[in-house]
């Protein structure tokens, strides 16, 4: 009997392999949906923008086009220290481990056991004999994936892992853009502070002129008071700008994973806002589907949910399992390793849910509805990506036109103010004319500085919505581990 049991156990394993070779996989096979995209951008491209395919022309390290070493250093430090990025990378490792758990279900489970017992019966109720039992062996069980439910689970887990990696890239794209935008904000506040402090000096000189003219009897105290009022109003803006500048530095430091104030020394010297390059490649709308991490994430999530339909459908069919054990059994410890102590057992089990009130079929409907939801989300993500790029193109082009007009306005305002001050000194115009031209000049200078920063910020936002930056900066949290199959 023992030899027959051992023979049965050895026969069941190859039989299971033969069964597995002929298994089918239920549920829909995933195919990437075809999304139609416009052949070209709706927004007209301004000078310096090119719509040639961008896969090879869009710089992986796009922040280097601004030729600002400090910006490049900040970006590198953010990649190494940002805490949101670390969290996203931890989620990748979690998803990879979850995939490993699912994959382990495809293989047999083998365990080892050993036991020893000694008992003595009661002399009053029995013989008072002492009995011993010793055993050692291996147990194995294997649920055959006859209808592909486990393989669909692995397919879903693999796609989820890939989606988590794309999510890291999405976090990285946003991080790079946020670092650059905050850096531009710091430089913009420094420029505005410089303009305001310069205006304070100019208005101080104007205030001196009115006081000298008042002492010479050429004007009244009204001009002196108006000049003083104008001076103090502009001087009052300085503390507000300094507060905004320091807060921008703090935000930038936190993006790098450092405490507020860590960048004060690095950013102590005022520098101009980085200028935009003369040529920028934006590519074609179809490029977004291959490059935007959020689009790629949504596509992988759709693949994962499609596989879940197969997991749910496999529950409609029977499940088959193989069970077996081999070992040694003896009532004496000295005979445990003898030939006669060998024992084996093999079994095959089948289970099939015949009635569950429709629970399995309803679960299939649930997973199908979630797949339809994931498909709609993917299509919505594509449309959102197209909209964001179109909006960024419009903003970048129109802000450049605005900057050009404001530059001309500053030139005219500077000339008007100098003429008004000279004519006031000669008594040809009223002091109100000086105040008006001075205020108009300051307003135009402020608007020009803001517009120049906005042009650079809009280009950074354009790089962000184009999905630039992750291809070289991030190669995958699992680069040195097993690559998930599609």
- Arithmetic mean pLDDT: 85
Identify the CATH homologous superfamily.
Outer membrane efflux proteins (OEP)
Structural class: alpha+beta
Give the biggest beta sheet. Answer: 4 strands, antiparallel
Distance between the termini: 49 Å
In N-to-C order, the SSE pattern is HEHHEEHHHEHHEEHHH
3D shape: elongated
Number of strands: 6
Strand order of the largest sheet: 2-3-5-6
Which oligomerization state do the chains in this entry correspond to?
single chain
Q: Strand portion, in percent? A: 5-15%
Number of domains: 1
CATH fold topology: Outer membrane efflux proteins (OEP)
The low-confidence runs, each spanning 5 or more residues with pLDDT under 50, are 1-14, 477-486
Rg over CA atoms: 38 Å
Instruction: Bin the helical content.
Output: 55-70%
Helix count from the secondary structure assignment: 11
CATH architecture: Up-down Bundle
CATH top level is Mainly Alpha
Task: Walk me through the structure.
By secondary structure, this protein is α+β, with helices and mostly antiparallel strands. The chain has a single domain, classed as Outer membrane efflux proteins (OEP) (Up-down Bundle), CATH 1.20.1600.10. Helices cover 59% and strands 11% of the residues. The chain has 11 helices and 6 strands. It has a 4-stranded antiparallel β-sheet, with helices on one face. The protein has a two-stranded parallel sheet with strand order 1-4. Helix 4 packs antiparallel against helix 5, helix 4 runs antiparallel to helix 8 and helix 8 runs antiparallel to helix 9. The radius of gyration is 38 Å and the shape is elongated. The N terminus and C terminus are likely disordered.
